């Protein structure tokens, strides 16, 4: 596909110079069936990081969107300490069928970085919950900023979305940056023995709209 290097930024883009740079085809294999997608890169994003958009199907007025923060341990190595890998797999399979966008944000460890996330794991193993571990390392409970996600959507001409998430902060931040979120659709709950405490913390301390079995919530 032709790179969109000469397209002017939309009027509703929040920062000057935000635009898509390269659009290339990508063949994926969600759920054992091949799907065609498009990878989109950007320039001018407010945080300067190399985030990606993966588009499945033709653009629609209100696409289904998953904002997914990078998790090397879960997304790539299938770690059971979190639910990131299964959530991403669900999003790819669902959006490849229904059409929409995955915004893959380079915000490892809720924004604290990979090495710090591993340090937080060590603290969790000593008894701290996932948020307390971040604070012990002098970070916020959740240091992610979804302004860049709004920039990406604006650059693609998308200002109205249906959001696939259990995290209400994502919808709140998108709305604060001028993106209309018409509906919020939950992902599945991927509970296993290794991530029970993690999911309990997200439910009880992080405000995530997940539903655990009563004996474990």
Automatic annotation (TrEMBL):
| Biochemical pathway | Cofactor biosynthesis; riboflavin biosynthesis; 5-amino-6-(D-ribitylamino)uracil from GTP: step 1/4
Catalyses: GTP + 4 H2O = 2,5-diamino-6-hydroxy-4-(5-phosphoribosylamino)-pyrimidine + formate + 2 phosphate + 3 H(+)
Tell me where in this chain the GTP cyclohydrolase II domain is found.
Answer: 35-183
Q: Which NCBIfam families match?
A: PRK00393.1 (NF001591)
Give the Gene Ontology MF terms in alphabetical order: GTP cyclohydrolase II activity
Q: Which organism is it from?
A: Micromonospora vulcania
UniProt-listed InterPro entries = GTP_cyclohydro_II, RibA, RibA-like_sf
Q: Give EC number(s), comma-separated.
A: 3.5.4.25
Write down the required cofactor(s).
Zn(2+)
For this UniProt entry, which residues form the secretion signal? none
Gene3D superfamilies per record: GTP cyclohydrolase II
Query: What's the name of the protein?
Result: GTP cyclohydrolase II
């Amino acid at each position: 596909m032709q790179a969109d290097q000469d397209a002017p930024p939309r009027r509703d883009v929040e920062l000057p110079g935000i635009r898509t740079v390269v659009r290339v085809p990508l063949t994926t294999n969600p759920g054992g069936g091949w799907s065609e997608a498009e990878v989109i890169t950007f320039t001018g994003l407010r945080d300067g990081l190399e985030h990606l958009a993966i588009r499945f199907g033709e653009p629609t007025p209100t696409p289904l969107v998953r904002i997914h923060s990078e998790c090397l341990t879960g997304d790539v190595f299938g770690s059971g300490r979190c639910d990131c890998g299964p959530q991403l797999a669900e999003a790819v399979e669902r959006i490849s069928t229904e059409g929409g966008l995955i915004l893959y944000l380079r915000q490892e460890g809720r924004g604290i970085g990979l090495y710090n996330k591993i340090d937080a794991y060590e603290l969790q193993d000593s008894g701290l919950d996932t948020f307390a571990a971040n604070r012990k390392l002098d970070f916020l409970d959740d240091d992610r900023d979804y302004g860049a996600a709004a920039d990406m959507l604006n650059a693609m001409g998308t200002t109205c979305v249906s959001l696939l998430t259990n995290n209400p902060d994502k919808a709140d931040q998108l709305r604060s940056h001028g993106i209309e979120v018409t509906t919020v659709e939950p992902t599945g709950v991927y509970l296993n023995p290794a991530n029970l405490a993690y999911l309990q913390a997200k439910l009880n301390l992080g405000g995530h709209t997940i539903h655990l079995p009563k004996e474990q919530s």
